[in-house]
Write a structure and sequence with these properties.
By secondary structure, the protein is α/β, with parallel strands linked by helices. It has seven helices and six strands. The chain has a six-stranded mixed β-sheet, sandwiched between helices.
Length: about 180
Amino acid sequence: MAYPLRMSARIGIVTLSDRASAGVYEDLSGKAIRDTLTEWLATPWEPVVRLIPDDRATIEQTLIELCDVERCGLVVTTGGTGPAPRDVTPEATEAVCQKMMPGFGELMRKKSLEKVPTAILSRQTAGIRGQSLIVNLPGKPASIRECLEAVFPAIPYCVDLIGGPFLEGTEAAPKVFRPKQK
């Protein structure tokens, strides 16, 4: 079922962290996503927040729930994109998606490489499940905004193309790109 134009959007925000999910420290990464999207989205939206451990089965189940049950047109994850053994977010994302969108990860890494040489260790990616776009971001709050800034211009149009909710950016947001209609 397609989303009507200008409908309030549901956006999944998933923090993947063993320690934050156990209450060892506060989830600053999920907050960074929420704050950035609040600043950048003109479309009314509702966050659907999850804080879970770095467990592949749990990640897959959470992504499926957010896309298929909660009907989030966009799901943004943070954490689990490095080379450590427990970093399995890209694998979980690929397992639940029908199409992968590697350009998102390529652009985020390019942007991050301008700041740190270790950005080559990051495995961010994106994929499509039904009418939902899933975007994997790194876990560091400053890197979240930096990476979102790189890919945000393409997110609303991608969500349009898969039948998700119509997302509009604010004046403060990186300029959203949509091809001109003929």
